[in-house]
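Colleagues,

Please find the record for the two-part complex below.
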Amino acid sequence: MGLLNVNYGELIRALEQKVGLSFRTGRERNAWYVLDGKKVLRVTVPKDHKGTVGTGLADQIRKNLKLTKLEFKDLLACPITGSDYERIIRDKGLV
Amino acid sequence: MLAVAEFIGRQIEVMTEGEIKAPVAFRLGGREYRIAEILDVWQDYGFGLAEQGVVRNAMLCDLGHEGYSLRCPITVIIEEYDEETVARLPEVEAFASAATEPEALALLKEDIIRLYEDLISTPEEQLGTLPWQWRAALLRLIEKHGAP
């Protein structure tokens, strides 16, 4: 499955509103996904990116999130909620 | 012996996973099908590489910051795509993306330092499984000097 059509704005909205990430400012932006008071995952997105996110970058963000390509696509397209994502991460034993 | 119930000669969109790109699902006619079992494999020498960047290794000998040094050179992965280059250190899941390799490497160095600082300033009991491992790896790799 291609990740070629990931829009940067939609990606950030999904990460902030659904996953609950909060990106710090800086040249690159990082955010921690925290569960049970523990930093579990770290997600990096470029600052001031515009338009479509490239394949390589989108794939790295997907790997940061520990999602399959299908799950990543679902996250962007809405079927995955914040609680769904939490369950995925717990199921993977990452907490 | 596999009995073929029906031959479908239509284009499918295949979704893959993992470093060796194993197929996990495919889409046919607007419907998605999960692959339960791979029954057979064969080499594809001509197709399927369109989204795979050119991958190679590069060596980092420093972190581009006088406050930090590497105890030994580290190998990072460079992935070149048509319009971007991704540099990454898989062991700690750090990466950076830029138009050119030097830019990507410079951003990766900054990201590694940010991650190191973040991890050493976080109490160990507040680190999940992976960040705890990243912290141990970075403490092995990086030496921090007194003056920034």
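The longest helix of chain B spans residues 101-120.

Comments are welcome before we finalize the supplementary table.
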